[in-house]
Predict the 3D structure of the following.
Amino acid sequence: MSKTKYIFVTGGVTSSLGKGIISASLGKLLQARGFAVTIQKLDPYINIDPGTLNPYEHGECYVTEDGAETDLDLGHYERFSNVSTSQDNNITTGRIYQSVIDKERRGDYLGSTVQVIPHITDEIKYRIKLLGNRNNYDVVITEIGGTVGDIESLPYIEAVRQMRWEMGNDCIVVHLTLVPYLSAAQELKTKPTQHSVKTLLEQGVQPDIIVCRTEKHLNDNLKKKIALFCNVNKSSVIESIDAETIYDVPLLMKQEGLDTEVLKKLELPADNEPVLDKWKEFLQRYKNPSMEINVALVGKYVELKDAYKSIIEAFIHAGTVNDCRVNLKMVHSQDVEDHGAEKYLSGLDGILVAPGFGSRGIEGKIEAVRYARENKIPFLGICLGMQCAVIEFARNVLGYQKAHSTEFNNKTPFPVIDMMEEQKKISGLGGTMRLGAYPCSIRKESKAFETYRKTEISERHRHRYEFNNKFIDDFTQAGMVLSGINKKDDLVEIIELKDHPWFLGVQFHPEYKSRVAEPHPVFVSFIKAAKTFALQKSGQVKK
Ligand code: GLN
């Protein structure tokens, strides 16, 4: 196919309608029909990227192979499509303005007045088309963050208007809205949808397809009404009912004909039925587990599920492989710090200590590690979680009671976790960590090797501190195995314990690479160990 086609996904009425999931589901359906698809997110905030944002503001920061700190929706795109995204898949207003201002300073605009239209909108269009042109995608789906009518999304909607005008049928707009159910009136209401389409029309954009998020089925009359008021065919009004799991959404969208409608509008062939056998098999297993296990996620943003999005999804993938449902118990590390581990962690089948920054609740995380180590409960520490495992070992096994990471105590006599050399010269915060994919060599005869079944792996990183190599001998002599090393930079990437059924700390983030089609081996192996632990406890399997 020669020309790349562009699909824009806008949102109306409220935020949090699930534009990311709809985009990922549409991408999945088109991909399952044989099209090469990528998904891009445009975020209308002024931060250069979400790397400096507090998880309370924006949930998890997702990291790509090439080390971009991005919106968590990119995680959904990868988990659904099994294709890696990159720096080009997430653009913010901050980045758009930064490059326009840089060009202005260089004199690239030859003395003209630099304005939102055309300079900012040109830069937006350039970033959208760049993705399609550079990689020869058949289809680029671009999700526009925020809600239509927001002041900050105006330049993006204007760029969409221009692209539609310039590209005709090579470009369509899918508008996602809410059709609320009023229980007092016992009715679904279309007015908010009409208004949000009107807002789009005021900005010069006629949506081609309207996807309606709803709690109840939309009947034919309702669809007709939306079609009439919003100038679309009835077949272009797509119901998106609340789903049991996000992984149902591609199949629900197929049932509703979203993909065929999109292909019709883009004048693309719809001859091949989407091949979704593997996807359906995954859903079948996910929904019919043979047992349930209980695993703690110890972190400091536990009231906010979005902060650990990729970890939560990785558990779903790994549970499915192991034929079990993983019930996650979110445990606040500050609670463990204040009231002890026993109260929150006893009786569980596995303990994960989460990544993080800053000292709040750090002692609770270290205490959770101790509890897992001493009680031989399967343990996985990710990034800061791995660093906590190193600190715990130093304090309670090596007897270095004042051991710490210099992130939290830069005067500790035992800096077992210390800032990486390359990081010491850096002063700015944005985009300056060790980010993205790095190779790691795995030692044979280790849990890590049993997990990966290979000696060379590559995983994504996001950190400033590392295991302090000055202490290597102390740790290894006392029974800690340094089973994964970055040879080039001499960094410890994986630690484990010999006399423990399953205890792994990883300096990288395996959760970013777990996908429906490829559940991550570290999570799969952790859940397998947790399942065995649960069966042993209940006496179904001998120790
Ligand atoms: N704060 C730690 C560091 O910067 C861990 C980071 C993380 O968990 N992502 O090294």
